[in-house]
Amino acid sequence: MCKTICPVCGGGQTDTLLSLSNIPVFVNVLPDQLEEAKEFVLGTQHLAQCNHCGFVFNCEFEPEKVMYDTGYHAERGHSAYYSRHISRVIDFIESVKPVKGQRLLEVACGGGEFLAEAAKRGPKDVTGVDPSAPETAAEPLNLQKALFDDAYLEKMTCPADILMNRHMIEHILNPLEMLARFRRALAPTGILYLETPRLDWILENRAFFDFPYEHCAYYHDAFIERLLKAAGFEIAAMENSYDGQYFSICARKSTPQPALTPASEAELCAVRQAFSKLERTYTEINRAQAVPGFCAETRRSGKPDLHSDSTHPDGVFFWGAAAKGVMCANLLNQWPIAGFIDKNVHKQGKFIPGTGHPVLAPEQITYELVKTVIVENDVYLTEIQAEAGKIDPRIVVLSLSSLL
C-alpha cells in the first residue's frame, strides 16, 4: 500500500510518477548460485511526488528488506574515469577547506577506496563508518563496521572537520533526519561534502533503469537546495559532477529553517511531465524489442535492428553489473541478454539478482562468446570500447543511450 504521507514535510497529498514492480531489493549484492539469484527478494519502486515540498520518494519502500552488511560491493576503482572523478572530488573539497591536518569522517564509506585517496592529502585523522565496511583496513584508515545513527553520535569524542557522504541519502526515506546527524557530527567551522544522483539528469536522459529499489529518495536541482537550507546548511560550492549525473556539494553549518520551503507549481509540473516522457521511452523500447534482433548487419553497422524478425538473434552482453546493469537485466526482459561483464572481482563468477544472468570477467570473453556489448553508462564507453577492441576488434560496443 502506497504511503501518501511525505516523510520529509508530512504533506498528505502526492502524485504517482512511476511504478516498477518485481525488481531486486539489492543491486550490489550478487548471489553465488543461479537458483539463489532467481529466488532473490523483490520489491516495488512506486515513486510519488509530494505536492507540498516536491520530494520524490518510493511510497512502497520497505526498509526491513534492505539491510546492509558485508557482501555489499559498489567499488568502481578499476575504472580510470571513476578514479579521475575521485581525485577531482577531493580537489573540489579542498577548494573550500584544505584536507591537510583535518579530521575526516566518511559516512557510508564502503570499502574505503575514497578515504584512501583523501588520506594522501595529509589529514590528521581518517575515519569511515559503514555497516558493510571490511573488518580490517590498511593504515591510516580507521574503518568502523557500524550504522551512523544517534547511538554512534553519542560515542563520538571529537567532531569532524570534514564530513563526507557519498551516495547514501538516496537510500533513506527521511533525509532531514540524516542531515541533522551530519550537522551534529561537524565542528562549528566544519564542511559537509554531499554527493548523490541528480534526478534532473535521470529524467533528461530518460534513464528508466536508474531507479533501483535501494534508492528510495530522489533529489532534483530545486529541491536539494531547499532541503539543505531546512537542515541548517548553507551551500559553499556546488557543481554537477560525473558528466552531470551527480550533485557535488560543499556546505557549511547555518541556522536551520523552521520548515521546508514549498515547491512551486511549475516545479511540480516539470517533474511530472519529465516522468511521463521517461515512462513512454521505457514502454516503447521494451515493445520494440519484443522480437529483438542483433544480427550480422548489427555488427557491421554498429546499430541494432530493433525490428528484426529473427527468431534466433545473437545474444548480447551488458558491460557493468552494478545498479544500472542489474536494473536493465530485470526491466528489459524481452531483450536477448546473454550475460554481463564486470571488472569488479567481487562480482565475477556470480549472478544477476532477479534474472540469474552470469557475470564474467573481461578475461573470459571471446568473439565466439560475445559479439555485441552494450554499455549502460556513457562515461565508461571510451574505456570499454578500448578494452573490448584489445580482446577482439570485431566486437561491437554500443551505448545504451544511443538506443533510447
Task: Compile the SSE list and pairings.
Blueprint: E1 14-24, H1 34-38, E2 42-50, E3 56-58, H2 80-94, E4 103-107, H3 113-118, E5 125-129, E6 142-144, H4 150-155, E7 160-166, H5 175-185, E8 186-197, H6 199-204, E9 217-218, H7 221-231, E10 233-241, E11 246-253, H8 265-288, H9 296-301, E12 316-319, H10 323-331, E13 337-341, E14 359-360, E15 372-375, H11 381-391, E16 396-399
Parallel strand pairs: 4-5, 4-7, 5-6, 7-8, 12-13, 12-15, 13-14, 15-16
Antiparallel strand pairs: 1-2, 2-3, 3-9, 8-11, 10-11
Helix pairs in contact: 5-7
Characterization of the model:
The protein is α/β, with parallel strands linked by helices. It folds into two domains: about 80-255, Vaccinia Virus protein VP39 (Rossmann fold); about 290-404, 3-Layer(aba) Sandwich (Rossmann fold), CATH 3.40.50. Helix content is about 25%, strand content about 25%. The chain has helices at about 35-40, 80-95, 115-120, 150-155, 175-185, 200-205, 220-230, 265-290, 295-300, 325-330, 380-390; strands at about 15-25, 40-50, 55-60, 105, 125-130, 140-145, 160-165, 185-195, 215-220, 235-240, 245-255, 315-320, 335-340, 360, 370-375, 395-400.
